[in-house]
Amino acid sequence: MSGRVQGVGYRFFACSAAKQHGVSGYVRNLHDGRVEVYAAGSDAQLNALRDELKRGPRFSGVENVSETAAELLPDYVSSFTIEQD
Q: Between vectors from CA 70 to CA 14 and to CA 83, what angle results, nearest 5°?
């Protein structure tokens, strides 16, 4: 995600939304001001999470959400975490 996504509670928002939709993975801030979300779940779960991430928390300003297919990472298949920088 890019836009106003750091310093507005975006990682906590993403973690809560992922857990609500039963998605596993992680969220972390990137050094260039973007936020990265790695998510694993069914198509329906991922679509629901994507909609939430595009909206973002109250004071965010999400400008872009880009997606890339990734291989399944075994460390992130059973929970969703906030990774530290």
A: 40
Domain boundaries, position 25: 2-82
As for how many domains the chain has, the answer is: 1
Distances (CA, A) of 78 to 16, 17, 18, 21, 41: 15, 15, 12, 13, 10
Query: What's the CATH number where 45 sits?
Result: 3.30.70.100
| Mean pLDDT value across residues 64-68 | 92
Q: What is the Cα 4 distance to its own chain's centre?
A: 14
Q: Which helix (H) or strand (E) covers residue 24, if one does? A: strand 24-29
pTM over 0.90: yes
Supply the residues annotated as catalytic: 11, 29
